[in-house]
Amino acid sequence: MKYYELTVILKKDEEDFKKGLELVKNTLDKIEAKILKEEDLGVRDLAYLIKKEKKAHYYYFEVDALPESINTVNKVFNLSTDVLKYLYIAAEQN
Fold it and tell me: What architecture does CATH give domain 2-90?
């Protein structure tokens, strides 16, 4: 297992946000990633339009996951209309 920080930018609409967050958590569960920490960073203005959205809901995770499973997560997130952007960072565990 490797330690990752994951930031996900979801649509700000409450229904779309809940759907997107559920997708993210289910995907992490599917790859057997262990969520160590999660934090709702709230709705923020975007620096530029992403899929015609001016504002989006940011959500942060710290997870332990197998490096091979990250490709699966990338495929799911890229196909989702509720996940606007995401960023995985391999980090040192505190």
Answer: 2-Layer Sandwich (3.30)
